[in-house]
Write a structure and sequence with these properties.
With 451 residues, the chain is α/β, with parallel strands linked by helices. The protein is built from 20 helices and eight strands.
Length: 451
Amino acid sequence: MKKKIELTETVLRDAHQSLLATRMRTEDMLPIAGALDAVGYWSLETWGGATFDASLRYLKEDPWERLRALRAAMPNTRFQMLLRGQNVVGYRNYPDDVVRRFIERAAAGGIDVFRIFDAMNDVRNMTTAIEAALGTGKLVEGAICYTLSPVHSVDYFVRVGEKLADLGVQIICLKDMAGMLAPYAAAEIVAKLKARIPLPLHVHSHCTAGLAPMSYMMAIEAGADMLDTALSPLAQGTSQPATEAIVAALMGTPHDTGLDLARLGELARYFYGVRRKYAEFESPVSNQIKPDVLVSQVPGGMLSNLVAQLRQAKAEDKLDAVLAEMPKVREDLGYPPLVTPTSQIVGSQAALNVMTGKRYSMVPTETTNYVLGLYGEPPGPISDEVKKKVLRDKQPITCRPADLLPPGLEEARKGIGSLARSEEDVLSYALFPDIAREYFLARDGGKVSSR
């Protein structure tokens, strides 16, 4: 059956998040923007995920300005963003009014496709975001986080997909954030999703375990419609399969993407130069095939950041021990898929368990909140022993976590006061109060570069 495969290019978001700790600056995106816009991609992933936080925290750039600048430079291609449901682009649940307003301003700033997921696959945490995004008239991808565990099955993933379809999403995304999706599993899940849900299916994976290119081909044969890829200088390893390789593999077949390899080669030459600029943020493991990810399940974007954090703590030699501890913590916590923010929760707890030498002797607030149910319903039961250690006499909640949150937008508006120059500034402060305030003060003092 003839069916063109559409590609989403991740070089401006997930690729550098996965390989370069999310450090690519806007100044390195704009010179190539016109050429990217002319390729004919189905979409460009340009925003969301960790890029919002990293822009403010590390690059001292305004993420909203990045979106507007890229949109002006690329008027012809759909812009796609990754949105963490009720977590928006942060690491905890935010009030419904903040979620709605953020999505409204993101759409106005140039986002055409909202890929919305929840780390727990708890659809309750995605409902407000999906409704808000649909209300803007933009395209909404409901994402199913893929993982391996005793409580996850093909039928489980299909049930999540059906719930998302019932909410009105126009596209289903199978999101394999750790690169664990094996070829035959990909074929089975894609075939069942396509048989049960009459919507386009987008597949996202990482090459961490070396499986993704094979899984993509099997997914195509089973009926997938779209794939995420990254230009070769920022592909493979903990990033996505190379765009050029997928285009070449499908050329002359019924699934030909129609993209020009010569044009992609010109883009690749530019990004090889860009990558060299960020060599200090390279992780020693980001370009290796790591089959042990099938055990640790660390997502691509987290691995480079975990290495950076351990390096900062002068504990890089503990990486293997932390990776070995992560599946044990994950089992204790009911097998959550490892994607932001659950990957950070499990990773931080594993690191503390290793560094202290005594499991759960130190428990971050985030782990406590997870066990309380403030991130949603775990896929499996949480260890009774961990519950006792973490909660003591507290009782977990059973409602949608955001139902416990009062409106937050007006409080943020008052809190940031005259430091906010726009509604977008208010939203940045609502999401990251300390980081945004520091950025605004530096900006007003003339210490933030306008690059």
